[in-house]
Amino acid sequence: MTGKPTTPNARVGIIVPAYNYGHYLDECLGSLAAQTLGDFTALVIDNASSDNTEAVARAWVARDARFHYVRNETNLGLTRSMLKAYALLNNEFMMLLSADDLLAPGYLAATVGALDAHPECPMAYTGWETLLDNPDDPAHGQRGLAFVPHQRSGVYDDSAVLLSHNWITISIGIWRRQSCEVVGGFDPQGLRHLGDWFLWMRLLSEGPAYYIHEPLGAYRIHSAAESRRLISSNQSGDDHVRFYDLIFGNERWPMTIRCLAKAHQMRWLTG
User: Fold this and answer.
1) Are 222 and 133 in contact (CB under 8 A)?
2) Is the full-model pTM beyond 0.85?
3) Which of 64, 68, 176, 205 is the most buried (most CB within 10 A)?
4) Taking residues 196-201, what's their average pLDDT?
5) Exposed, middle or buried: residue 59 (CB in 10 Å: 0-12, 13-18, 19+)?
6) What does the alpha-carbon distance between residue 216 and residue 177 come to, in Å, rounded to a whole number?
7) pLDDT, tens digit, 9 for 90 and up, residues 221-238
């Protein structure tokens, strides 16, 4: 097991949670290595995989000092595994990159540059694409632009609109660690599927987001995705009810946002 990363002064800390995604991990880490802004440290947190995840990660650690690897002896669950990794990093900017997703080479340069230019923004995100990974589908390998309700780059207070639908997939958001601590830390408070959505909402309670109108990330759609399991087991449904309760019951948001959350909860419950 690799210990605490030895590059604490890197501006960006990137957590790559992985569980039996060895067949995706090499391409994912390669997209990090290709970043035009190289001032980052990446920590692969392996949740006791039984495939070749460890071999792939250690190969990157051996050839690039920015990459680090920690293996959990037992499967801690995704949330506990990510919290463990978050505690091992202490960088100015933080992000999560799913081991099956990809970043375009200019992602870090664009988002870090935006946050440097806009100190009022606690977070930044970019446009993104879906990447269909299903060899049995005639559209296998095709990409499609994901929905984002903005037509140009800029500063946006997304709080009210984001309550209706989370268009910021986890792998394309980056945030100031200090802002995260102010709004209660990284802990998703029991949300198993919507922890990223709750984090975005909490960060937006501190200030607006900066959006970059370029598709600088790719979200892979495949049959083994964790999100599919959470949806099919109805854990996602439970999360939606709890997510809106957490917003409604917290005075961090103005009453207009809190009441809007309750209205969306009723919409969710009634279809």
Assistant:
1) yes
2) yes
3) 68
4) 96
5) middle
6) 22
7) 876 666 655 555 567 778
